[in-house]
């Protein structure tokens, strides 16, 4: 099995393997170390021995065996026997409760109130999504060393606070929900618009986030924000077939072939949005889903109801203001009132270390005929973009300035 296939298995199954090992070991660091050793073994063996019939099962079994060996070497006799027996009990019935999946159990553990929200999201992205520290840092718009320290502190806090790896009670679930939804959405957004690498989309992360979103919706059917997040992801995922051109290039929403959109996902997402509207308990994910539903309902880009989009962004700014939301609102305002109106809104925004702000600025300047300023803004965006497809798109736009 070539190395890229080992990487694919890592992306798809790292989170599950860590979750299983955390359940068995009760220790996040030990679980991560065992899983990483298993993947290193796979890198050495699979290219010559061939891939096992069940790569994910092989990884979990190998990681468990590595952990058993370490416990035998390092534990006291009594503790060694107890833990080794626990590690062999992987076929034993799962602990009862409301969360029926190891990965969701690990999410709720990482989202314990002992941790800050930022640490909760970062740690779960690392453990469940299999994102590298650099990718988690990009999701948070912070330098990689800062994120590495944050992850170390988060795991140390879990150990010091003796946070249990268990299913939260029914009373605890709502309080943990906000951070859990943030985790799932950040996994999805990293998959939908990869922050690094050569691909525009990482389908594995999108699929994992949607899978977790469906499980959350099954677990908490009366929580409108859970339905809103699932609707947002489904409606966004529906556009994925049209987001990438034949050569792997990025295709903007206005230029996409809407015949390639997944109509089944759109129908499912729009149904969820209508259910959210009937509940009349608007939250950030529901409003974002409603915005995406407006786009998905337009037969062509020209048919988009931009005034409705601006109104929804106004509502989103009222409940969850942020520079990113303000930037997207400015783009919508530019469609309604012209690029000068959008530019006036963008000028005061501060969004460091992210290429999106100078990219939007460049496009508005281009539309206003201010080519030199647009060129400088494209240069700034190129310096910040971490994804090869994003850089290629920006270079193409810059070249067309003449």
TrEMBL record:
UniProt keyword list: Sigma factor, Transcription, Transcription regulation
InterPro entries: DUF6596, RNA_pol_sigma-70_dom, RNA_pol_sigma70_r2, RNA_pol_sigma70_r4_t2, RNA_pol_sigma_r2, RNA_pol_sigma_r3/r4-like, WH-like_DNA-bd_sf
Gene3D superfamilies: 1.10.1740.10, Winged helix-like DNA-binding domain superfamily/Winged helix DNA-binding domain (1.10.10.10)
Pfam families: DUF6596, Sigma70_r2, Sigma70_r4_2
Residue ranges occupied by any RNA polymerase sigma-70 region domain in the UniProt entry: 10-75
Coiled coil: none
Gene Ontology MF terms: DNA binding; sigma factor activity
Domain of life: Bacteria
Domain RNA polymerase sigma factor 70 region 4 type: start-end pairs: 107-158
Signal peptide: none
Record domain DUF6596: where: 176-275
Gene Ontology terms: biological process: DNA-templated transcription initiation
Similarity section: Belongs to the sigma-70 factor family. ECF subfamily.
Protein name in UniProt: RNA polymerase, sigma subunit, ECF family
The organism of origin for this protein: Blastococcus tunisiensis
Source taxonomy: Bacteria, Bacillati, Actinomycetota, Actinomycetes, Geodermatophilales
